[in-house]
Each structure stands twice: as structure tokens, then as C-alpha cells.
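Example for tutorial group B:
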């Protein structure tokens, strides 16, 4: 996926993140997606795909169950996104586990050489 890097893409990704996070907390009742944190959204160049990065309080052990729950809720989430953001075309949501924190903890950057 070729990511969009324009200011418009970043603003749209931030709006999608905020709306998705609120919908997951307030409207989705699936126990598999409780305690999910949406950590980021990346859009492709034509805004047709939104890669949604997520984590869960219980950690990587529930990644598969959580991803399945998010995929079950995908249609509802896209419907609500379109309503909230008044989008003509709602991007396809693709859910990906966010490994940023894990990489920072387990793979710290190397010390600079002197």
C-alpha cells in the first residue's frame, strides 16, 4: 500500500482515528473488541484503504480474537464513519496489530559509536 503523506491525508486519518475510537467505546458491543485501543490510521494515496493500527490491554495473546472481532464489526464501523464524517466514499478498513511499542521495548536503538 502506497501511503498518502499530504496534510489532507493526515487530517483525514486523524479524524477517522478519533471517530473509530469513540464508536468502539460507545457503540460496539462485541466483547472481543472491548479494551481495544486504536493507535493510528494510515491512508493510501487515493483514500480507498485505511490501515487501522490497534493494540489491546491484554497484549499480543488476544491479537487474533481481537482482529476477528474488528473484522466482524467492519461493516458497521464503515457505515458509522460515513455518517459521522459525511464521506462520499468510505475507505476499506484493514486492521493491523501495532508493534511500535513492542519494537521500542524489545529492540532499543543502538548506542551511537564514538
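The residue assignment follows.
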Amino acid at each position: 500500500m502506497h501511503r498518502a503523506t499530504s496534510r489532507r491525508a493526515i487530517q483525514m486519518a486523524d479524524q477517522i482515528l478519533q471517530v473509530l475510537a469513540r464508536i468502539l467505546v460507545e457503540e460496539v458491543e462485541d466483547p472481543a473488541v472491548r479494551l481495544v485501543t486504536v493507535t493510528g490510521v494510515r491512508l493510501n494515496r487515493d483514500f480507498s484503504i485505511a490501515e487501522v493500527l490497534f493494540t489491546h490491554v491484554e497484549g499480543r495473546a488476544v491479537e487474533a480474537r481481537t482482529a476477528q472481532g474488528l473484522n466482524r464489526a467492519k461493516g458497521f464501523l464503515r457505515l458509522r464513519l460515513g455518517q459521522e464524517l459525511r464521506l462520499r466514499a468510505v475507505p476499506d478498513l484493514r486492521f493491523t496489530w501495532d508493534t511500535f511499542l513492542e519494537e521500542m521495548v524489545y529492540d532499543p536503538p543502538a548506542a551511537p559509536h564514538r
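Residues 7-26 form the longest helix (20 residues). Compare this with the pattern of hydrophobic and polar residues in the output above.
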